[in-house]
Amino acid sequence: MAQGPTINTIAERAGVSIASVSRVLNGLPTRQETVRKVMAAADELGYVRNAVARSLKSRRTHQVAFAMADVGNPAYLAMLREIQPVLKAAGYRLVLHSTDAVAADEIEVLHSLGERYVDGLIMSPLRVTEAHLETLSAARAPVVIIGSVPEGTRVDNVRADSRTGVKLAIDHLYGLGRRRIGMINGPLDTVPGASRGAAYREALEELGLPYDEDLVQIGDFYRAEGGRAVAALLERVPDVDALMCANDLIALGALDVLRAAGRRVPEDVAVVGMDDTDLAAASWPSLTSVSLGSAERGKAAAELLLDRLQNGDREPRLVTVPPRLSVRASTAGEQAARTARNVPPGADAGRDAAGKGDGA
Amino acid sequence: MAQGPTINTIAERAGVSIASVSRVLNGLPTRQETVRKVMAAADELGYVRNAVARSLKSRRTHQVAFAMADVGNPAYLAMLREIQPVLKAAGYRLVLHSTDAVAADEIEVLHSLGERYVDGLIMSPLRVTEAHLETLSAARAPVVIIGSVPEGTRVDNVRADSRTGVKLAIDHLYGLGRRRIGMINGPLDTVPGASRGAAYREALEELGLPYDEDLVQIGDFYRAEGGRAVAALLERVPDVDALMCANDLIALGALDVLRAAGRRVPEDVAVVGMDDTDLAAASWPSLTSVSLGSAERGKAAAELLLDRLQNGDREPRLVTVPPRLSVRASTAGEQAARTARNVPPGADAGRDAAGKGDGA
DNA sequence: AAAAACTCTGTAAACGTTTACGGCGTTTGG
DNA sequence: CCAAACGCCGTAAACGTTTACAGAGTTTTT
């Protein structure tokens, strides 16, 4: 592979020094004649700046890393989708790390900041351990954490508010007249499982509804098990009239099982999901879902990082993104949902260019 | 920010030369005593290799770029999901480019290979223009193209086979006794639109069915417009008994409209989508869909690139990924679909850790 | 015992930029 | 007409590595 031209090649051909070439290429004040010669030579040679050499000297890579648990996870994708354009607009490239939700991998990513291949990092750790905090405090580049971090940790931080999110949903159901509101949750030893469970209890209490253990069923965060959990709950509490599901997949499982059991949604049982993924709009009936603002969190994180990159020593900031309730047919009925959103029938689609890019 | 330690710092502390330090760090043969001293110094200082300086010297960045049209597109995501682990296992980082399906951006990415910030590129262009080919032939790093490329282009290439994919679907519908099979397509001036339209026609001909223009309706690739197209088709050809949709979103729109029109799916009208996205499994009835193997294409592309990086001058290769039909309820009925997949009710969920990573 | 071979290490150059510094030639001011 | 000021430009050092080469010291061979 032919060695590409360098500023040396250009300098030779233009009959000037490499310093002049560099100055011209960087737009520093230079005599017109010199500019012309250098530009001509550069054009003829098809010169492109070597980013690596540039980074070595300038100590800036113009790259930022984003470490997510799982590339397939819609919540992280929503973040990615917002992070990408923000960084791109600011002239940064995006390096993607998938940590498979393994703490050791996350710590390895933090540690690898020492290699200085990126200027900063946005990370959304599954859960923050002592080891995370230690490595974090020694990190050799600015980091923004998406997710909760112990009080007093000196790091830029973006959080969701799932507590308020759950409350929004419960209040919504209450407002629709539901009084026997069940909860289908994931394992309580996960961060979201624990906080969503607690939030459910609190929301009921604030409304003056009794907390009834029979109304809570634990499974995992997937569709099949979610369905089974709902089946178990229906058996135990036949008069349940609403289901708060800890994520959208569980809610889809709920729809499966309710349909099989001959219960109408939302007339007999209203269903609410969480995360407001694409799936919520695709299902039938479409799913009311609590959005925890993944997209907004991604955007906020990117902006925090950019700000920090320009202004290294300001105080760490905390941004909390408010949740939002996307009301759809599974609680409000098709008619009501449509009115709320003010869209014509069938216009619920998100964007999708699927199939555009395939090789036919 | 404190300047991190370099091999110079280590050399000083260990009382050896930087060459020795480098040798030790790279595992080149060295006296035990020296190894010990260097390792000790490196540990004490918390030394981490500077990837940029390393790249400059070695002319290898251990980074690979993936350029996709749109981060939000499930088809590209499926690719990304497979590409990531393959590269990671081989010790490469992934740089993500989103080109917004703008040809100029794609060309810019190709051009920027000259900056040498990556060792290679996987690109899935919306459509390959003359300008693409020109820039491609002058690219300063190996490229793998996902998608079709003119005969004779010297580049590693991975393709889907949407022709066979459409045929699979049409044959399936024919096998179910359907004879009035409509097609809802996107614009014919897009690559997938054109090829899927042609494939539909051919598949009918091979089965001895007449090609009836009335059975074809063009819209775009989104849900709302897809629904409208279906409505128009129903009006014109009330006795249509199956719909071949050019992607899953169109198919979702079809389900919306058929439901509103009181037609049962699949009893009255069978529906097939394309791309086999997550949405297909989430909808109700779940959607039979043609998978064009996005995941497999991504994997193949990553492997081709890695191979090329190790073996620069072999002949370009072409890999064609066969399509697959995922039969679900929208053609076969719930019962049949379940039998075909041999899964219990409600176990249709894909993976999803949504909600795991959020800050609660 | 001298030469040859071998092992280990240090010096220095190179990768492709950016940039501080000083020199030279021209303009300006007194 | 000389000095000061200024505008351009070239030389060289630096960023943090890797690595060719040669020198020093040790071991083997003849």
UniProtKB/TrEMBL annotation, chains A, B:
Residues 5-58 form the HTH lacI-type domain. Keywords: DNA-binding, Transcription, Transcription regulation. It comes from the Bacteria. Signal peptide: none annotated. Residues 328-360 are annotated as: Disordered. Residues 349-360 have a biased composition (Basic and acidic residues). Coiled coil: none annotated. This is Transcriptional regulator, LacI family. Gene3D superfamilies: 3.40.50.2300, lambda repressor-like DNA-binding domains. GO terms for molecular function: DNA-binding transcription factor activity; transcription cis-regulatory region binding.
